[in-house]
């Protein structure tokens, strides 16, 4: 089994990059509610803590407060080339609205001619994925602990009519006390009824997403069921080397 799952994103709801990130057009960008406005010179880069398809994440230190943060830096040409404008916009819009102890926090956004920036919590415990792979599987008690916190986070998002759509161990971080923080909100969306966008990770997709029948917030509960199975068994219930093989198995079990 691969060490990490491939993400699927087909989005027909694109906005211009300039419109999606206009709030960071000034020299200091824009602070999220209840947070101060920063500039890049306020932050000291300590280390690179993650790399992705179109950017990287740095551990940075606020020169004034000495507090640590995660600074997500995305290359604008790559975001446009990979048609990720809407995902970046979604993440910013959702994180600007939410405030919950089990969700990552966004403090500040900014962009210049080359990069987009998002200043967020630094969560030092790493991914739940890493712990699950090193242990093989979790005990019932451990699985129940993480599940209860995930339920709280998902219920909070749904109370704000937000569907998350990317629940998996790689997107669950652990803080210094072992509590969860959901991260990566590129597929999250404000949703009052249904949407037809095909996005997510194949192993976690609900049947109605695969069949393009239109889906609502219930797809997050399907993904949670898959995640609970994986935490307790050590592998997802539907797996194949080919994504289409995964889709077939999901649909066959739910005819």
TrEMBL record:
Gene3D superfamilies: Phosphorylase Kinase, domain 1, Transferase(Phosphotransferase) domain 1. Residues 19-31 have a biased composition (Low complexity). ATP binds at residue 72. Keywords: ATP-binding, Kinase, Nucleotide-binding, Serine/threonine-protein kinase, Transferase. One of its GO terms (molecular function) is ATP binding. The keyword Lipid biosynthesis does not apply. Pfam families: Pkinase. The keyword Nucleotide-binding applies. Residues 1-31 are annotated as: Disordered. Residues 43-255 form the Protein kinase domain. GO terms for cellular component: cAMP-dependent protein kinase complex; cytosol. It comes from the Eukaryota. PANTHER family: CAMP-DEPENDENT PROTEIN KINASE CATALYTIC SUBUNIT PRKX, CYCLIC NUCLEOTIDE-DEPENDENT PROTEIN KINASE. Belongs to the protein kinase superfamily. This is cAMP-dependent protein kinase catalytic subunit PRKX. The lineage of its organism: Eukaryota, Metazoa, Chordata, Craniata, Vertebrata.
């Amino acid at each position: 089994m691969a060490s990490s799952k491939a993400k699927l994103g087909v989005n027909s709801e694109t906005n211009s990059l300039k419109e999606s990130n206009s709030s960071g057009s000034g020299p200091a960008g824009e602070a999220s509610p209840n947070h101060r406005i920063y500039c890049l010179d306020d932050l000291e880069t300590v280390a690179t803590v993650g790399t992705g398809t179109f950017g990287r994440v740095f551990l940075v230190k606020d020169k004034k407060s000495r507090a640590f943060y995660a600074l997500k830096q995305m290359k604008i040409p790559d975001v446009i080339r990979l048609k990720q404008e809407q995902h970046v916009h979604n993440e910013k819009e959702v994180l600007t609205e939410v405030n919950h102890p089990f969700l990552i926090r966004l403090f500040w956004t900014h962009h210049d001619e080359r990069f987009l920036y998002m200043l967020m919590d630094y969560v030092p415990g790493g991914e739940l994925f890493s712990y699950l792979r090193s242990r093989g599987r979790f005990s019932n008690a451990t699985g129940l602990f993480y599940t209860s916190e995930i339920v709280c986070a998902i219920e909070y998002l749904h109370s704000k009519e937000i569907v998350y759509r990317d629940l998996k161990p790689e997107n669950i971080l652990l803080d210094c006390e072992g509590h969860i923080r959901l991260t990566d909100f590129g597929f999250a969306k404000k949703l009052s009824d249904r949407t037809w966008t095909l996005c997510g990770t194949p192993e976690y997709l609900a049947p109605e997403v695969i069949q393009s029948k239109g889906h609502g917030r219930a797809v997050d509960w399907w993904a949670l069921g898959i995640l609970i199975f994986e935490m307790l068994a050590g592998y997802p219930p539907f797996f194949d080397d080919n994504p289409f093989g995964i889709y077939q198995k999901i649909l066959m079990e739910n005819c």
